[in-house]
Amino acid sequence: MARCFELAHEMANRGQIENEPKMIRKQAEELMGYNDEAFVSMSRWVARQPTITKQAFNGAIPKVGLTETNYIQAAQDFESSLAPSQNLVEKYSELFSSRSRR
């Protein structure tokens, strides 16, 4: 019984199961149903598996609408910075009207 709880704790420390008493107890109870050969095999398998670590959020989500200088560039500012021949609305209208004629 003790070796089942030891293996369940090792599995929890490696991130293979949740590190909660309820989950560890459930895993230990499942391991108690294994015969000696299956238990040894399972313990070898657990030892061979890499430790699963959860990575914390590092704040690297892109900030939509911000430039590198953290200046919020509104769509109006962007369109006004285009040359007169580069008006996006006109370009898209032109593109889609030519597709509908095909």
What is the compact description of this entry?
The chain is an all-alpha fold and 102 residues long. The chain has helices spanning 2-13, 21-32, 36-48, 75-81, 88-100.
Characterization of the model:
The chain has 102 residues and is mostly helical. It folds into two domains: 2-48; 62-102, no CATH class. The protein is 56% helix and 0% strand. It contains five helices and no strands. α1 (2-13) packs across α2 (21-32). The protein starts with a helix and ends with a helix. The mean pLDDT is 77.
Shape: rod-shaped
Structural class from helices and strands? mainly alpha
Would you list the SSEs in sequence order as H and E? HHHHH
Number of strands: 0
Secondary structure topology:
Layout: H1 2-13, H2 21-32, H3 36-48, H4 75-81, H5 88-100
Offer a few descriptive terms.
mainly alpha, 102 residues, 56% helix, rod-shaped
